[in-house]
Design brief:
The chain is of the alpha+beta class. It contains 4 helices and 5 strands.
Length: about 90
């Protein structure tokens, strides 16, 4: 599974999971699910201050790809929020 966060004017971060190994890297590489959102919202989501699904439903996030990956992405963000936040924040 691979998901990508595209932040307008800032860059793209790809989170991939392969056999339990999570990798976060700055990359515009193709992903199963891509999310376009503002930088502030991304930081709020990875820090746990905001929830991804309501942000999508409010239209704050543009989705490209298979939404079936969204629940897995949410679980990943909740379980590894500090690691993901640290890597995206750099």
């Amino acid at each position: 599974m691979a998901c990508r966060f595209d932040v307008a004017g800032v860059g793209s971060w790809r989170i991939s999971v392969d056999r339990g190994q999570v990798t976060v890297k700055e990359s515009p590489e193709r992903a199963d699910l891509a999310l376009l959102l503002p930088e502030g919202l991304l930081l709020e989501i990875v820090s746990g201050k905001k929830n991804l699904l309501p942000a999508i439903m409010r239209g704050e996030v543009v989705v490209d790809g298979d939404m079936a990956y969204a629940p897995a992405l949410l679980r990943l963000l909740r379980s590894r929020a500090a690691t993901v936040e640290r890597q995206i924040g750099n």
